[in-house]
Amino acid sequence: MAAWQFKVALIPKPWLDAGGLIAALVTETGWETASAWAGVREHSLKARIERVLPRGKSWSPALSVWGSEDRNDIQLFEAGGFVESLNVRLDLREPDMELFKSVFAFAQESELAVVDMMRKRIVPDLDGFVRAAAESEAAHFVRDPTSFFEQVKTSARAT
Questions:
Q1: Which of 9, 29, 44, 125 lies 20 to 30 A from 107 at CA?
Q2: What 3-state class would DSSP assign to 119?
Q3: Number of domains forming the structure of the chain
Q4: Which domain holds residue 116?
Q5: Do 5 and 92 contact (CB within 8 A), yes or no?
C-alpha cells in the first residue's frame, strides 16, 4: 500500500449482525478477514465491482483487481471459490468524491460494512467515510510528507 492510499476493508453485515467483532479480525501481522467471509461465495460481487472501477491487473489467480495498484483499487481475494477478503484503496493525492460515493453505494447494495482499517471501526455513512479518509495517515502524508515521516520516525523510536 502506498502512503497516499486510504484503505478500508469491506466485510459482510450479516457476520457483524451475528455478533462478529472487528477486534477479532486484527492479528499480530495485520488484518485477517477470512473468518468474517467464511462460507461466502463471490456470486455477483465481481459484476457489481466492475460498475465501480474497471478490471485491473492481478499478480495471483486468487486475486481479482479493479482499478490501478498505485491509485485507486479494489482487491478481492478468494480461496476455493469463497471470498477471503475485499479491500479498497483510495488515492488521496487527488480524491475522487464520485468514487467515494460509488464505493459506499456498492457496499450498501452488497450488504457490506465499510471498516476503517487504521482505526478499527465501522464507517456508518458516506460522511463518516469521507471524514475517516480526511483524518487518515494517508491524508496526513498528502498534506505534509515531512511531518508524516517525522511522526513515523518518532513512533519507531518509541517501540
A1: 29
A2: coil
A3: 1
A4: 5-158
A5: yes
